[in-house]
């Protein structure tokens, strides 16, 4: 009897802190498995609508760190962050 009471108390605690997620999205950080359509069909329209938030996340992932951030985030990024030359080179100059 005491075991059942402990089990019931434990289940109540788990249910109290458990969240039920009803919105699901594709993980943009993981390469997905996309299925191709049937090869013998002419109809090639896409079903469903494209989520704007997911599209923004995918495009931000594909950006380089220089496009994402204004300044280097890590110490390793400081090397080569400013890759543009400070002085424009003149091709007419004989010293070059």
From TrEMBL:
Annotated localization: Cell projection, Cilium; Cytoplasm, Cytoskeleton
Keyword annotations of the record: Cell projection, Cytoplasm, Cytoskeleton
Keyword Nuclease attributed: no
Gene: LOC111087786
Pfam families in UniProt: FAM183
Protein name: Protein FAM183A-like
InterPro entries listed in its UniProt record: CFAP144
Cytoplasm found in the keyword field: yes
Family from the record: Belongs to the CFAP144 family.
């Amino acid at each position: 009897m005491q075991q059942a009471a402990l089990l019931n108390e434990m289940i109540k605690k788990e249910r109290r802190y458990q969240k039920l997620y009803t919105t699901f999205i594709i993980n943009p950080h993981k390469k997905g498995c996309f299925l191709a359509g049937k090869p013998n069909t002419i109809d090639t329209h896409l079903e469903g609508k494209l989520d704007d938030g997911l599209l923004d996340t995918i495009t931000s992932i594909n950006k380089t760190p220089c496009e994402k951030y204004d300044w280097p985030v890590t110490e390793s990024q400081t090397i080569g962050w400013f890759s543009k030359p400070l002085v424009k080179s003149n091709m007419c100059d004989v010293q070059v």
